[in-house]
């Protein structure tokens, strides 16, 4: 496991050279917010990092319900019973293993490592929507990788954690835009069209730091986000 810190944002990267699966700890004045839970064994390192920082994890926020983002959720909730768990109202269905598509959504199957029904024991405390605040974080609804994916914008420094709405491993890309050196996020993407619209929204947030589920953080990412949008637009112009 590799830890990278940028101001109040800690990136914990598991298997960084093989299949980097990231989660993030956001430091508040007296407490910590964990964004995503990485792999099933990751809870030990997450708890150790919290102890090293010297503050408790009081919130667990899930960007989406794929297995490499919720892997240690149940173990962490067992270790931190007082921590509140947040997920978007739409994505909570996926966390329960309910994969049906809603009538207003693109009618394509949900892809990726979705939990089996009743396999996740943790019940979220709060279901969030676009614009909600979680400590210093503002929720941005950024569907596409899954129907209920969210990103989290730190209002103090404009650090933006986007889950799998984008990737930087193998080259920066909109979710669904296949990068041959790391094609897995694209393979697990539900809707390319929706992903592209969400990344335009990410660009409009004008982040000072982009943090993703797979790959390194990027400081001052706006030019690179624009390039990723243009690349996706050019590849998908016949479909979008």
Structural write-up:
The chain has 240 residues and is an alpha/beta fold. It has one domain (2-236): 4-Layer Sandwich (Metallo-beta-lactamase, Chain A). The protein has helices at 43-53, 67-70, 73-79, 91-95, 184-187, 192-204, 222-236, and strands at 2-6, 9-14, 21-27, 32-35, 57-61, 84-88, 126-128, 133-134, 137-141, 150-154, 159-161, 166-167, 173-174, 209-211, 218-219. The strands form three sheets. The chain has a seven-stranded mixed sheet, covered by helices on one side. It has a six-stranded mixed sheet with strand order 8-9-10-11-14-15. A two-stranded antiparallel ribbon has the order 12-13. Helix 6 (192-204) packs antiparallel against helix 7 (222-236). The longest helix is centred in the last third of the chain and has 15 residues, at 222-236. The radius of gyration is 16 Å and the shape is globular.
List the keywords:
seven-stranded mixed beta sheet; alpha/beta; six-stranded mixed beta sheet; 15 strands; Metallo-beta-lactamase, Chain A; globular; 240 residues; 25% helix
How many helices?
A: 7
- Low-confidence regions: none
Biggest sheet statistics: 7 strands, mixed
Number of strands: 15
Produce a short descriptive summary.
The chain is built from 7 helices and 15 strands.
Write the topology of this structure.
Blueprint: E1 2-6, E2 9-14, E3 21-27, E4 32-35, H1 43-53, E5 57-61, H2 67-70, H3 73-79, E6 84-88, H4 91-95, E7 126-128, E8 133-134, E9 137-141, E10 150-154, E11 159-161, E12 166-167, E13 173-174, H5 184-187, H6 192-204, E14 209-211, E15 218-219, H7 222-236
Parallel strand pairs: 4-5, 5-6, 6-7, 11-14
Antiparallel strand pairs: 1-2, 2-3, 3-4, 8-9, 9-10, 10-11, 12-13, 14-15
């Amino acid at each position: 496991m590799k830890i990278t810190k940028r101001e109040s944002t800690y990136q914990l990267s598991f298997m960084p050279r093989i299949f980097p699966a990231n989660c993030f700890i956001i430091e508040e004045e007296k407490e910590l917010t964990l964004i995503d839970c990485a792999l099933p064994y990751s809870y030990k390192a997450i708890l150790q990092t919290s102890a090293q920082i010297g503050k408790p994890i009081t919130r667990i926020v899930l960007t989406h319900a794929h297995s490499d983002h919720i892997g240690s959720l149940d173990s962490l909730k067992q270790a931190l019973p007082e921590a509140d768990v947040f997920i978007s109202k739409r994505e909570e269905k996926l966390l329960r293993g309910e994969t049906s598509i809603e009538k207003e959504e693109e009618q394509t199957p949900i892809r990726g490592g979705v939990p089996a029904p009743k396999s996740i024991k943790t019940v979220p405390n709060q279901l969030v929507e676009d614009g909600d605040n979680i400590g210093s974080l503002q929720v941005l609804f950024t569907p596409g990788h899954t129907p209920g994916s969210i990103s989290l914008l730190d209002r103090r420094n404009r650090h933006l954690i986007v889950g799998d709405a984008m990737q930087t491993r193998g080259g920066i890309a909109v979710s669904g835009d296949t990068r041959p050196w790391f094609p897995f996020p694209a393979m697990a993407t539900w809707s390319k069209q929706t992903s592209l619209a969400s990344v335009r929204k990410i660009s409009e947030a004008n982040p000072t730091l982009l943090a993703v589920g797979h790959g390194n953080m990027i400081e001052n990412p706006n030019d690179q986000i624009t390039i990723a949008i243009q690349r996706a637009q050019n590849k998908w112009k016949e479909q979008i």
